[in-house]
Amino acid sequence: MIQYRRSQWRLWMVSALLGVGAALCAVQPAVAQKQQGAPKKPKTDKPDRAPDDTVPLAKFFESEDPLPITLTLNIKRIRGDKDDKAPWRDATITYTPPGASAPEVLPLKLKTHGIWRLNHCDFPPIRLDFSKDNTKKTIFAGLNKPKLTNFCRDDDTYERYLLQELQAYRIYWLVTHDSHAVRALKVTYVDSASGKPLTTRYAFITEDPARMSARLGGKIIDIKGAGPDDTKPEAMVVMSLFEYLIGNTDWSISGLHNIELFTRTDGTDPFPIARDFDFAGLVNARYATVDPKLRNRTVRDRNYRGYCAPNEVYPKAFAIFDAKKDAIYGLYHDKIGSLLPQDLVTETLKYFDEFYKTIDNPKNAKSDIIEACGGKR
Length: 377
Description:
Blueprint: H1 2-20, E1 67-73, H2 75-80, E2 89-95, E3 104-112, H3 116-120, E4 126-129, H4 132-135, E5 147-149, H5 156-175, E6 182-191, E7 197-206, H6 209-216, E8 218-220, H7 233-245, E9 259-264, E10 271-274, H8 313-323, H9 325-330, H10 342-359, H11 362-370
Parallel strand pairs: 1-6
Antiparallel strand pairs: 1-2, 2-3, 3-4, 4-5, 5-7, 6-7, 8-9, 9-10
Helix pairs in contact: 7-8
């Protein structure tokens, strides 16, 4: 039965890729929509390109300096958009381009998105829609429809949660560029109906899946059920170790929960890309909970959830994290890290110390990671 499921999953994946055909070579490959049952052929009207051709990282993400902007929108309407089919709303971004002396106003559309945050936050999570015509020759060129991870509640505690999740994305980017790029913003929210400012809080923009797919030269496949034999072990272990580092258990490769399954056009096995880390032990949000099926008592308890891989894969993955250790810790002493209270920085680095004590001790690495893997190959 297990072998049948694996074969069936492989058949679904191959069918999906063949069905897309030339769309795999689009400049911005279409992202398949989540669905029930058999995969559907994604729609695309993008031109073909060579399989080894990729697009560069959007210029917006080349700097890590927080970008100050004013986001003007109808706050009452956006707060009332609780439906998963919420409409796109008119808004503007006011910002001062690098080197400019006067601000510019950029029109755009935005809408609410998400599940948990949409129903639990005072201010809903937002997706932005940048028009190509409006953003040409601006810092926002090529962003497409990224998520804006904005404040949930207008207080310092929730802002710290947001900054720690931003740090998780930055750590992931240091470990591998097979991940979403991010950049911080300092956003002043202004109500378009009254002209009054609501608040100023930090936020961050995440590279949208279609743009990331184009940059990496492949496509996200929206097919659940991938098991240990269906993913590239080296990349899967690196992703799983990253989740272990930040203490995140709120993900599933098979269920595509907070995971995107990505395949390159060169035909190599798919690999998972992680996203959404606000339930991680690193963030330690007061609202975060642990799946009762796991042995964790709190979100700070680490639990390795990666699939099993050949034994020789793990030392190579451990070496990647050892090589990046100083850079990871350095993120808590740069412009973003300095926004966090010093006691929280100290606590966070001690939390990371525990991770390194595990991977650098062969006995602990074997018991807590290698032998704790899920599913056998």
